[in-house]
Please model this.
Amino acid sequence: MTGSVTGAEDPEDPPSFRLAYVPGVTPAKWVRIWRERLPAVPLDLVPVPAAGAADVLRDGGADAGFLRLPADRTDLHAIPLYTETTVVVVPKDHVVTAADEVAPGDLADEIVLHPLDDTLAWEGLPGQPAKERPATTADAVELVAAGVGLLVVPQSLARLHHRRDLTYRPLTDAPQSRVALSWREDATTDLVEQFIGIVRGRTVNSTRGRPAPAPAPAPAKDKRGDAKGGTRRAPAAGKQAGKPARTTTGKTAGRAAGKTAGKNPRGGSGGTRGGKRGRPRRRS
Model:
C-alpha cells in the first residue's frame, strides 16, 4: 500500500498515484495533464468493474477513482462530473432505427436484456424480460448481435462495445448514469487534491487552499491631487512663465504690419500720403 493512500509516506519509496476507473470512462485527458504537471509522480491506471469500484477505493486499492452513481458511498467522498445519455442498442436493420429517439413504450413487445453488471437504477425495466440475465454488458451485446434481444445502457458503454452490425438510439424517460470522481474520506492527500484540481479544470497557478494576497494600498494624495513623493507634472507649453502665451490674431497682425510698413525712416511717426512725393520743380 502506497503512502498516498495511507497518508504516511515512506521516504524510501517514491510517491505514486493510483487511479481506478470503470468501463466506459476515458481518463486519458486528465492523465495527460497530470503527467505534464507532476512528471516525477507516476500515475497508475486501475481498471475495475462498475459493481466493485467503491470497494476498491474503500480497501485502498486506489487513491481515487471514477465510478458510476448510484453507488454505495459509505466512507467515500464523491464529486459528480457529468450525466450520460441512456440509449438502446439494436441491430442496424431494426425498426426502431427509423426514429431519432425511442420511448420505453416503443419497446413493449421487445425482449430487453438486463445484465448483472447493469448500472442503471430501474424501477421497471421496459419490454419483456429474457429467461436469463447475461453476466456482463459485453455478453449482452453479443446476444443483441445474435438477435436474442435489445439492450439499454449508458451511451459510453454502447460506444465501448461498438460493433459494425449494431447501432443505438437515445431512450427517453429512462434512468441515467452519473460519473463521479471518488476517494476515501480519510485519505484526502495532497496528491488527491492535485487530481481534483485537474479534473475541475484548475490552472497550475491556482491559489485554492492558500490565502489570496492582500491588495497593495493606494498611494496617498496631497491637496493638489498628486501622489506624495511623486513627480510633479511639467507645465504645458505657453505656461512656463505663469501666464498663457499671447497669440496674435489676424487683426492684430495686420495692424502691426501696417505700422511697420508706414514708419518714416527719419524717425517720423507716419508715412507719406498719396504715394511718393516727387522732386520740386525749378522755377524759371
Notes: The first helix runs from residue 3 to 6. The helical segments are 3-6, 28-37, 53-58, 137-145, 155-160, 190-199, 250-261.
